[in-house]
Design goal:
This protein is α/β, with parallel strands linked by helices and about 280 residues long. The chain is built from 11 helices and 10 strands. It has helices at about 15-20, 45-55, 90-95, 125-135, 150-160, 175-185, 200-205, 220-225, 235-250, 250-265, 270-280, and strands at about 5-10, 30-35, 65-70, 80-85, 110-115, 140-145, 165-170, 185-190, 210-215, 230. α1 (about 15-20) packs parallel to α2, α4 (about 125-135) packs across α9 and α7 packs across α10.
């Protein structure tokens, strides 16, 4: 750090925690930090995470630093800056291969889940929601992409309830395979308990016109404009299914959400990301 022109931290993490303490001794150095986790002040988190957040946002201990966080939170110190992550360039978006398919609510209604099969991502709740919609008389499909400790439990549930005709565990797949699934799917369903900037699933699904159905954790409500660009789950089966059915029963409502979510996600290009990073490095 003593020899660096610019100090950059990535938190939360073990090295991030050590670096957060060490950077205090270099108050005149230009610094930045990316907090890649949940910045929500009300979130339940380990003490070490809270400690890192406290140090980074304390402008007496942490000087000449801009802290990049996911979401726009109230009552933050002046060094806390809302930021984003990007996957595609402006040039790629303008390519015809990146155009959004004109999706309509038809049969079957395609759902997708992308994430680890763990308790934190709650894949069983995703399966049960689609199961409930099927019982309402709708032809549906749910493709789950990812692997994890709950795989055997989910397989057992699917077999016991005879859901194997429309709920498929695909395991880990290539990026290209998942991308094609986003393009064809109507909805992403992700009842996750915690997220930072869920670019690998929620933001990317929105990019491809896949309407997100997600829990209101971290900056997700901000991403969905508090329900304008997708469905925020309440984790009450009856209420959640009712909200989803409202969209399924209206092609216009689905199309509006699809357009809103895609337009919002496509503003965050790698070109814009590079420009904003340069501003951070050149900040005086």
């Amino acid at each position: 750090m003593s020899q660096a022109d610019h100090i950059h931290l990535r938190c939360p993490g073990n090295m991030g925690l050590i670096a957060a303490f060490v950077q205090i001794f270099f108050p005149n150095k230009q610094k930045s930090a990316k907090y890649a986790g949940n910045w929500d002040p009300k979130a339940k988190q380990p003490f070490s995470y809270k400690l890192q957040k406290w140090i980074l946002s304390n402008t007496f201990l942490t000087r000449n630093m801009q802290v990049l966080v996911y979401g726009d939170w109230k009552n933050q110190t002046k060094n806390i800056k809302p930021f984003f992550t990007a996957t595609y360039s402006q040039q790629e978006i303008q390519n015809s291969e990146f155009s959004i398919q004109n999706k309509k609510i038809n049969k079957p209604i395609h759902f997708i889940f992308v994430g680890t099969l763990s308790s934190g991502k709650q894949p069983l709740y995703a399966i049960q929601i689609v199961e409930a919609i099927n019982k309402k008389g709708h032809i549906v499909s749910l493709n789950l992409y990812g692997d994890g400790v709950l795989k055997e439990n989910l397989e057992y549930y699917i077999n016991q309830n005879k859901l194997y005709n429309f709920i498929i565990l695909n395991g880990n797949q290539t990026k290209e395979t998942v991308l094609e699934a986003y393009k064809k799917s109507h909805f992403l369903i992700l009842p996750s308990k915690s997220e930072g900037w869920p670019k690998g699933c929620c933001a990317e699904a929105m990019f491809w016109g896949c309407v997100p159905i997600v829990t209101p954790v971290s900056c997700v409500p901000y991403m969905l404009n508090f329900g304008e660009r997708g469905v925020l789950l309440k984790e009450n089966m009856e209420e959640d299914v009712k909200e989803i059915l409202k969209i399924i029963h209206s092609n216009s409502a689905f199309h509006e959400m699809m357009e809103e979510s895609s337009t919002w996600s496509r503003q965050f290009t790698t070109n814009r990301f590079d420009t904003e990073i340069k501003k951070i490095i050149e900040y005086k």
